[in-house]
Sequence to fold (238 residues):
Amino acid sequence: MLKLENVNVHYGATQVLWDVSMEVGAGEMVAVMGPNGSGKSTVLKAAMGLKKASSGAVLFDGEDLRAKPATVRPRRGMSIVLERRRLFPRMSVRENIMLGGYARPAGEARGSFAWVLGLFPEIEPHLDATAGKLSGGQQQMVAIARGLMARPRVLLMDEPFLGLSPAMVKNVYGIMKTINSEGVAVLFNEQNAKLSFAMSHRGYLLESGRVVLSGSGEEMLEHPEVRRVYLGVRESAA
Ligand SMILES: Nc1ncnc2c1ncn2[C@@H]1O[C@H](COP(=O)(O)OP(=O)(O)OP(=O)(O)O)[C@@H](O)[C@H]1O
Ligand SMILES: [Mg+2]
Fold:
């Protein structure tokens, strides 16, 4: 469904992604893992059109969106939840969520709102509170709810667990699983290898802007390089 082919991205004269190719099938959960500054966020931004790739292709249902403005993506079925949540802190929770449905007719937006609230019962009591008053974990839920208002077929999530308590990580993890089981594909990035790959159908490891490893979630977790460098497991000599 979503496919990046040999995507190169530059910031000014500096190249930060090199021939990145990735694939997200319909209904798949896909993780992009990598250390700080390896280019994880840039991959999502290039996919979403928030940062234009200098070359390569960003295919969605076979159509190359690379050079198209970011605004066409939501209409095709792509949505993004950005890092550090980016809510409007002085607006109410309800307003923040409804913003995610701006591109849809009012009737449809109401239907999406009901669907989204069903996924996040914890949010309902806070609908009229200003978003800035919520805890970090609650804000993350509002951000995800906003992203889902567009009824995406693929939801991109930039570090959905960043800064959350262990209990909230579990909660958001559960929500991602639920969304995914309802048929929404999810492409997310995360620095923790175990968290990334244990929950995903497929994973990619990025280092210095290049995909250095890819495979099923299980293959990634069992890969000696991932185990040694990212899971800190010492293999005993065979
Ligand atoms: N707006 C920008 N201008 C210039 N360079 C940038 C910009 N944004 C990112 N970079 C550089 O591009 C590279 C990849 O950054 P990116 O944010 O995609 O990495 P990341 O893996 O998401 O990192 P983090 O773990 O810190 O979120 C880094 O070297 C970063 O310094
Ligand atoms: Mg990042």
Remarks:
- DSSP finds nine helices and ten strands in the chain.
